[in-house]
Design brief:
With 218 residues, the protein is mainly alpha-helical. The protein has helices spanning 3-25, 32-39, 43-49, 53-75, 82-99, 101-111, 115-121, 124-151, 159-179, 198-215, and strands at residues 182-185, 191-194. Helix 5 runs antiparallel to helix 8 and helix 5 packs across helix 9 (159-179). It starts with a helix and ends with a helix.
């Protein structure tokens, strides 16, 4: 097997091992040593394929996003109203994140970095892959928003911006779902915590997304 093919195969093995460990343990508990051990290599070899942990996270997130893109494609119904379609893709996104909390952690780990910092740690090629994968997912929402504007159902000046806002808000909501603790004030003035019913969360987030699409006039 040519060197380039062996290198590509090894990189694929590392990404598959990373995804498996992320899904089993979560992003925080998956260490580089564990990934290397799962592949049967020394951790130094990982850094021959990735510039650092951030780049490994970024390429793993690309895999999650490709899977999400496929689910959004299957979940959308072009024959439904824009409002119904927005509700459908919102539900698909939330179900995906609730099923795979490591996706949420991985996405937020990268979002917490400033763009210029990330560009210093992740190669241009990987950034292009990541941007393309994110755009593919966001475009499902953009097309629905544009369809709603065309019918007069939505009022959105910048569908791309709103799609990005809905994406980041959704990640935040999924943190609450994972935490399973909502805070409220007790009658005595002391804080108490409640469980977080996922179905109710999905309903509220869908209502909020539709409300923003109807009135995002800026």
């Amino acid at each position: 097997m040519p060197v380039s093919e062996r290198r590509a195969e090894r990189k694929k093995e590392i990404l598959e091992a990373t995804r498996t460990l992320f899904d089993e343990r979560g992003v925080r508990d998956a260490q580089i040593e564990d990934i290397a051990r799962a592949v049967g290599i020394n951790r130094a070899i990982i850094y021959r394929h990735f510039s650092g942990k951030e780049e490994l996270f970024a390429e793993t997130l690309v895999g999650y996003l490709h899977e999400l893109d496929g689910l959004l494609t299957a979940g959308d119904d072009a024959d439904s109203t824009p409002e119904a379609r927005l509700g459908l893709v919102t539900t698909v996104f939330l179900d995906f994140g609730a099923r795979l909390p490591a996706f949420v952690d991985c996405a937020q780990a990268l979002l917490r970095r400033r763009g210029d910092e990330l560009l210093e740690e992740v190669s241009e090629n990987v950034m292009i892959q990541l941007g393309s994968a994110m755009a593919a997912c966001l475009n499902h929402v953009v097309r629905i928003l544009e369809a709603g504007v065309a019918t007069g159902e939505f009022v959105v000046r910048d569908p791309d911006l709103l799609a990005n806002i809905l994406y980041t808000q959704g990640l935040g909501v999924l943190n609450l779902v994972t935490l399973q603790l909502a805070v409220r004030e007790h009658n005595a003035g002391l804080p108490v915590t409640d469980s977080v019913p996922f179905d109710e969360v999905k309903s509220l987030v869908t209502l909020a997304a539709v409300a923003m699409a109807r009135g995002a006039t800026s």
